[in-house]
Specification:
alpha/beta; Metallo-beta-lactamase, Chain A; 2 domains; 4-stranded mixed beta sheet; 10 helices; binds zinc ion
Length: 293
Amino acid sequence: MFELHHLKGNTYYIDGTTNCGVYKLNDKNECALIDCGTEEDGPKIYKAIKDFGFKITHLIFTHCHADHSGGWEYIYKNSGCKMIASKVERGFFRDPKLDIGFLYGGYPLDEYDGKLMHIDMNDEIYALDEIPAGLDWFHLPGHHYGMIGVKTADDVYFVADTLGSINLVEKAHILLIYDVKGYLSSLDFVESLNGNIVVPAHSEVTTNIKPVVEFNRNNCYNIINILLDFLHEEHNCVECATYIFDHFDLKISYNKYMLILSTVRSYLSYLSNQKRIRNYFKNNRLLFINDSK
Ligand SMILES: [Zn+2]
């Protein structure tokens, strides 16, 4: 863990619970870092890069979650690098309450730990047009509002949290998704990269990403089918989330409840917007039903 591995040309990655990208920018051994792990990971990632003889001049965030950005402070203070994120994610970085309000759907209970996924960053973060030559960014809708991926000039693709490893998906059963339609389109895109080197944040680096994509897609379809079955009788969103907890025998906590309720709400919006279920008000409750036989 936390070793710098060469992938191709000027492209490297650091393995960890969150895989991070490293791209050598020039003959001065200056490099761009793509994501920086958790707060605890930051010093280890910085050391791996420094020991290799590289100097971080740019830090690009795929999205604001703490396992991708938590190491920023250590790395920024030690390198003075330019930090870059998408327009929406820059907004989330501005105030840790913003993402928790986004997930919770209102002002959160005190029980919610602001450190879980939310970084309080007041330093300047630059727009995506500051990404240095040799790197291109692309939208990866689905997991988080403004998540991006990064392609290097060596045709290596860093695809952030578009998918999880088979092991991770089997354990979690349901992954955090904001936009189910976008998520499925991002999976299609990542599948189209098969044959190239693909670096997911939470799965092994591979040139054969197709089976992992298929596993994640089938898991998403499985959640859809579970909800469609449950909705043969009318239910509200909270009842659907409770059913998911029961179905997979998930251990409840404040944070997990918030993430799954938010994700189930997104699935219900997707199914309703796709006209696969119907929504209506009854006794001042917003209900959903699957009318199909
Ligand atoms: Zn994430």
